């Protein structure tokens, strides 16, 4: 069974279930990597290491999310992502949490749709993330990044997540949506409630989560109504209004796509920015190399995304019986694609995959943005935001020093940080 250090014994998988009879709790399978405590306590590495070595396609018979297959190695995830008709995003959604017909309200979003709807709706928002748009937005991102960094106190503890990561990403979302600036922290609130799938385990928090999603939808409906019959503008709401694929969405689908874009733009970049601070402090040799050679910044961005992997998994559902790496998958089976584990796959990234190496030659092979037709539409923007943050820190010779343990998100979907106490100093 799993020890306090998160290590795994070599007993057969069938014997590696903790007997909970003495406590009255259900037995715990230490290879059920959907357990929130693994991520809250940052002890997920050992069970995934065991799975990659001994059962990269492993069936979990019982979990808080029901039975599912864990796909934990790089090759297996690429195979599944390359066959979107066989492994559906729409049949069961994109997280391990199942849709409950009696308690939930379906809110379709294009990342959780299959072709052709996925293709047409994705094509609608893609123009917001083209290279020309990145060029247009870069000066403003740099200006706002500089203002935030210049507002920090040196050699004085503060929360990096709140002061830097949340503020930068929330500002960016407000610009993308043409969202009222004074209310931009509502985006953070909605993102936190939408991205935490642990909330569905409790009826009260499930209801609270749904209420927040409806608040989000009502607010954005007002913004939508204000742009109807107006000329096109380079924001996501206007792009939806002026598209054939999304102009006539029903309200729940509108909310679903908003939630997708908010979580995608907030949680992922925000947690990568926090990982940048935490990870470079944890690997001082990598930090020293980066400080000595800012030309490594583009590769360092890819490496930090690989090392953190801000969304731990995506879920797919088999549409027919098939074989995946020797395992018999049945139609309707749920598969969790653990990007978090694939980005530590020793067969791809070497025996030092748990470390940050800013000069790692294949860092760009990471799967933090997914793979195939569902690869993150905003990947370029996320990379640019991280690169500009590192560049502006380098201009100021700013070093982030972690001064206390982080508070981590206790969930198996969003992999991130609630708080991170730091001080900044010059090098």
Automatic annotation (TrEMBL):
SUPFAM superfamilies listed in its UniProt record: Cytochrome P450
Keyword Iron found: yes
UniProt KW keywords: Heme, Iron, Metal-binding, Monooxygenase, Oxidoreductase
GO molecular function, a single term: monooxygenase activity
Family that this chain belongs to: Belongs to the cytochrome P450 family.
The name this protein goes by in its record: Cytochrome P450
Organism: Sphingomonas aerolata
């Amino acid at each position: 069974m799993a020890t306090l250090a998160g290590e795994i014994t070599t007993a057969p998988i069938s014997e590696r279930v903790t007997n909970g009879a003495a406590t009255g709790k259900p037995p715990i399978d230490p290879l059920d990597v959907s357990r929130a405590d693994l991520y809250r306590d940052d002890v997920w590495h050992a069970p995934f290491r065991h799975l990659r070595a001994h059962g990269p396609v492993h069936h979990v018979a019982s979990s808080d999310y029901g039975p599912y297959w864990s796909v934990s190695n790089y090759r297996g995830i690429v195979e599944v992502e390359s066959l979107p008709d066989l492994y559906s995003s729409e049949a069961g959604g994109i997280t391990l949490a199942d849709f409950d017909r009696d308690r939930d309200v379906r809110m379709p979003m294009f990342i959780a749709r299959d072709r052709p709807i996925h293709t047409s709706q994705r094509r609608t928002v893609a123009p917001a993330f083209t290279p020309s748009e990145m060029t247009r937005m870069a000066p403003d991102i740099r200006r706002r990044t500089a203002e935030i960094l210049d507002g920090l106190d040196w050699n004085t503890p503060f929360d990096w997540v709140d002061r830097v990561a949340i503020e930068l990403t929330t500002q960016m979302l407000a610009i993308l949506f043409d969202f009222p600036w004074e209310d931009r922290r509502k985006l953070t609130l909605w993102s936190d409630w939408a991205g935490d799938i642990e909330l569905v385990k409790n009826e009260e928090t499930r209801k609270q989560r749904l209420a927040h999603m409806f608040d989000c939808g009502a607010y954005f409906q007002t913004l939508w109504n204000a742009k109807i019959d107006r000329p096109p503008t380079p924001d996501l709401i206007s792009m939806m209004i002026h598209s054939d694929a999304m102009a006539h969405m029903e309200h729940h689908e509108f909310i679903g796509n908003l939630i997708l874009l908010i979580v995608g733009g907030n949680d992922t970049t925000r947690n990568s920015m926090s990982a940048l601070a935490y990870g470079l402090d944890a690997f001082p040799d990598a930090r020293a190399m980066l400080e000595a050679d800012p030309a490594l910044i583009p590769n360092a961005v890819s490496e930090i995304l690989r090392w953190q992997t801000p969304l731990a998994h995506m879920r797919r559902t088999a549409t027919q019986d098939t074989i995946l790496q020797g395992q018999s998958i049945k139609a309707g089976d749920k598969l969790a694609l653990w990007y978090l584990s694939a980005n530590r796959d020793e067969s791809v990234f070497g025996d030092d995959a748990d470390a940050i190496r800013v000069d790692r030659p294949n860092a760009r092979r990471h799967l933090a943005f997914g793979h195939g037709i569902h690869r993150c539409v905003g990947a370029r923007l996320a990379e640019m935001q991280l690169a500009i943050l590192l560049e502006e820190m380098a201009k100021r010779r700013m070093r982030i020093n972690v001064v206390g343990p982080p508070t981590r998100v206790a969930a198996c979907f969003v992999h991130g940080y609630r708080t991170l106490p730091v001080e900044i100093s010059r090098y």
